[in-house]
Amino acid sequence: MARAKRHFLHGYVWHITHRCHKKEFLLKLVKDRHRWLYWLFEAKKRYGLCILNYIVTSNHIHLLVADDGSREAIPRSMQLLAGRTGQEYNQRKKRKGAFWQDRYHATAVQNNEHLIKCMTYIDLNMVRAGVVKHPQYWIHSGYHEIQEPKQRYGLIDFKSLLRLLPIASEDELKETHRKWIDEELEKSQFVRQNKWTQSIAVGDKSFVEQIKKQLGMRSKGRKIFEDEDDYQLRDGRTRYGDGTQNSFHWDLNNYLVGPYIP
To answer: Residue 252 belongs to what H/E stretch?
Structure first.
């Protein structure tokens, strides 16, 4: 498989998803999810990863992070997370082979109502899966940390989160965040929205056009689609909404960002 040259776009919020190999439930044990969270804390400590939200499920993870302008924080962190989690699991199980399904996917998210929607989408992951009725019952998530901030070993960068939303205080964030979730639960429409996991960018028209412009030659074959309440930059070679995997990924073995061309 040919791989395109890598590129990097500074200063954006990124929604990152990574699935276990063949969607296997390799993170089904609590201790394995705890180990992923441990290495997430290490990534924050070692590389200054700016974490806004997260959830680790039985077979995939969601991670919302803000780029601080460094070329290394996000890709180095993902390399650490994926490598150490997989290595520990394989050693314990005396298992060989890939733990993760290829490279992780990243979607740029605009810092406005789209960021709020992305946060709630992450929080409600296990509700959509039918595992729990409320995100409070899935402890391996940012929902718990926002509602009950940790005194030690916290993962979420509250200062950055408050600035991006914007919200004045942690108490206001806690209350507002709970309202967002309650409003979504009242709708009872827990449908998987592939724009958060397959798009290159989600936001208003000017935001998505800006991302496409910055991609330059790497935007070839990428098209802008209009949804009911947003615009998305996606792979134009697949039909919008067909559920196929978008071809934009970040390479775990490089410190740069780039599209994956099959």
So the answer is: none
Q: Could you tell me the strand order of the sheet in which 231-235 lies? A: 50-56, 60-66, 13-19, 105-109, 201-203, 231-235, 222-226
pTM across the whole model: 0.87
State the SS3 of 101-154. CCCEEEEEECCCHHHHHHHHHHHCHHHHCCCCCCHHHCCCEHHHHHHCCCCCCC
Q: In terms of residue numbers, what domain contains 46?
A: 13-259
Q: Would residue 2 count as lying in a domain?
A: no
Give the closest residue to 46 by CA, choosing from 15, 81, 14: 81
CA-based nearest residue to 215, from 187, 257, 184, 247: 257
Please provide residue 255's backbone torsions phi and psi, each rounded to the nearest 5 degrees.
-95, 10
Which residue has 């050693």 as its token pair?
91
Determine how β-strand 222-226 pairs with β-strand 60-66.
unpaired
- Looking at residue 20, which CATH number applies to its domain? 3.30.70.1290
Q: Read off the pLDDT of residues 78-122 as tens digits, 9 standing for 90 and up.
A: 999 999 999 999 999 999 999 999 889 999 999 989 999 999 999
Residue 151 within a domain: yes
Residue 32 is assigned to a structural domain of this protein: yes
Examine residue 1 and state whether it is found in any structural domain, yes or no.
Answer: no
State pLDDT tens for residues 162-202.
Answer: 999 989 999 999 999 999 999 999 987 778 888 999 999 99
Q: Tell me how many domains the chain contains.
A: 1
